[in-house]
Amino acid sequence: LTPPQAAAPQGGGENGASGGGGKTRVLVLHNMVADEDLATEEDYGGLVEEVREECEKFGRLLGMKVPRPQDGYAPSAVKKVFLEYASIDDAARAESELAGRQFGPNYVGVTYFDEGEYGAER
């Protein structure tokens, strides 16, 4: 992950929160997972480790999901990273730091996700 650039599109924020429900403890990172990241267990494990290490810098990370088709997740959840923080403040800090950062060739988008839906997806 590299720091955001001035021209980078910003995702998330109060206007970009999914479902219009405002900020929650759960974030969704977009544009971070490519097909090759899911190709092998080794590639997947490397992605998970790299993302976890970076995202733990912004607050207490309680959980993280990187859904794959073979794990039974809905297609709409695949290729996204779901982060559950201990507090809304931690999630907001992560959103502020991650939105617009470059990850590989892409810029990271960040939205908030409904905590109830996150807990129901096991």
The share of residues in extended strands comes to 15-25%
- How would a crystallographer describe the biggest sheet? 4 strands, antiparallel
Shape: globular
Low-confidence stretches: 2-20
Distance between the termini: 28 Å
Average pLDDT score: 85
Q: What portion of residues is helical?
A: 25-40%
Number of strands: 6
Output the radius of gyration: 13 Å
Provide a concise account of the structure shown:
With 122 residues, the protein is of the alpha+beta class.
Annotate the secondary structure layout.
Elements: H1 13-16, E1 26-30, H2 41-55, E2 61-65, E3 81-85, H3 88-98, E4 102-103, E5 106-107, E6 109-113, H4 115-120
3D architecture notes:
The protein is an alpha+beta fold. It contains four helices and six strands. Strands 2-3-1-6 form a four-stranded antiparallel β-sheet. β4 and β5 form a beta hairpin. The longest helix is centred in the middle third of the chain and has 15 residues. The radius of gyration is 13 Å and the shape is globular. The N and C termini lie far apart (28 Å). 31% of the residues are buried.
